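Write out this protein's structure.
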Amino acid sequence: MKKGKQLIIGGYVLAIAIFYYFALPPINIHSVGLWIFVAFFVCLPLYFYSLVSGERRGMRELVHGKAGIFIKAFLGILGLVMLLGLYGAPFFHAKGYASILKIEEKDFTQDLDDSQVLTKVALMDTDSARILGNRKIGSLSDVVSQFDVAYDYAQVDYQGSPLKVAPLEYAGIFKYFANRKHGVPGYVTVDPVGQSTRYVKVKKGMQYVPSAYLQRDLARHIRFRYPTKIFENLHFEIDEEGNPYYVASVMDFKIGLFGGKTVKGVITCDPISGKTAYYEKDKIPTWVDQAMSGDLLVEQFDWYGTYNNGFFNSLFAKKGCRKSTETNRGGEDEEAIPDYGYIAKEGDIWIYTGVTSVNEDASNIGFIMVNERTGEAHYFTIPGADENSAMNAAEGEVQEKRYNASFPSLINVQGEATYIMLLKDANDIVKMYAMVNVEQYNQVTTGETLSECYDQYCKLMGLTASDDVKEDEEPKADEETKETEFVIQKVELIVNKGETYVYLVDDKKQIYKQKFAENESLLLLQKGDSVKVTYVEDKNGIFVMKQAEKLTRKER
């Protein structure tokens, strides 16, 4: 009998260990997963024990004995947890929910710079980025058979410009065991402004990734180092040198046990070495762009907009109640969900979305921008059409082509609040650009290139076209040709008037450019390469390259 009890206890402990290894619940009273664990592995076994013991010894003896006290204690604890969970509901803490996101009212024209209006807006949506990323990997025969591009792309600010990044991942469990020694070889970047794609091979393979198994599974790797942290939003980013990292948001709950969710810090993990670090919210490195997910920030704003004047006001009078813009592009049968765009600003990524009243109308009363690293939130009072109306207006402008509009971004065009968006065909291929005035959404322009669309919009609104979108004048043929050598500090691909230009920056901050079509080998150049170039200087002080040649070690 004693041996039988030992086997039962051993099996019970083994079941707990297996459950923890695969479910990975944080050991934290704010975790719902922990309480599910307690209910399943403590209360449920005690319940069955009570049934078996009650038949043998009599239910009265069990209820009033030591086992009965033990059972009652756990049931009491679970009951208290349920009460505390209910106590954290908005009914009791409407003001608490409304105060989690701190809102500052700002002047739109001063907060959004219009000098680089077409170079800092991340127009491309994730669906289009996936298509370009998959095409890029499809052209690499040594990679495509073993790895896929991860489904989720993160929006980051890389060296002052917006960029979408996604790691490669193992294409199934068998591919993992075949390649685990070398790890995941690289990641994909997509320029959402210039529509260009690049595959970056890392120096050593990434070992700790979400698509790995057992001890190299990234979530398990982090959980065993931070057993009490509640983390979400596990995603891929790169630092300013292009080194890969995974970042996880560490959650906190300000109201009750499970209410008022917010972020109190981040965990970073180097997927090559497995080294991890935890940063409090005010000490998060500047290269981390998505400490807080856009979905959470929009939810926090909706708490503010809904409960700012109390819970009962949100149900009945609804005075001053606001909410973020929702989109429903899948048809009447699908539920409308919040949506947002991205803006690169001062080295950080900000989400943007419109704000409308809780009444079901088609207009916005303003906009919010929220910093995904710091949680800083700005509100602009700009009445006008909502994003759905602007998307419909843009699609109506080219209705014969049946293009679909992407969720727009908000830009400042010489003081005019303007929606800017992509127009895509049925295969999610970008075909055109569209701009719609926020306050007068019947003022719409489209163009096959971004600069063409911008110029037409300026003409329509009686504005002056910006020098940023005018095509640079080519140097005259009789200008002096010069030659120099330097180490590349930065490489950029920029689309202007439908042409892709490669820009190189030297160690003296001088800028050199050349059309990509004239020298496709420029795509092989990277930061740190030594090059010899022949060039002429244009009227804007930019050096137009005639030839660029990478130097070997012997030539340097």
